[in-house]
Amino acid sequence: MPAKDISKLKLGPIGDRVMYENALVRVWDFVVEPGKNKGWHRHDLPYVIIPMTDGDIELESALTGDIERPKGKIGEPVWRDAGEVHDLRNVGNASYRNILIEIKSQ
Questions:
Q1: What CATH number does residue 89 fall under?
Q2: pLDDT by residue (tens digit) across 73-99?
Q3: Is the residue at 26 inside a domain?
Q4: 0.85 cut: is pTM over it?
């Protein structure tokens, strides 16, 4: 898929609710129901994802148009660098949930 014009995208929040926040981190709860998508959002900070459920998901990059199909394991952290603008689609048959931890300070 081609890259998107980011200036024309309506960017939403990274997660559904902030569970915890201090000067160093922000922790999000993140759920996407089957057949739904999260919506376009930007990651200005590096972050760690901890999958809480199995999931069949796709990440579409607005910057490159590439579609990634990550296969995380429940409870195993995944590091992601800052700078990505993407949408997450749940292409599976069950709810997908993760905990996302943004790193504010290094």
A1: 2.60.120.10
A2: 999 999 999 999 999 999 999 999 999
A3: yes
A4: yes
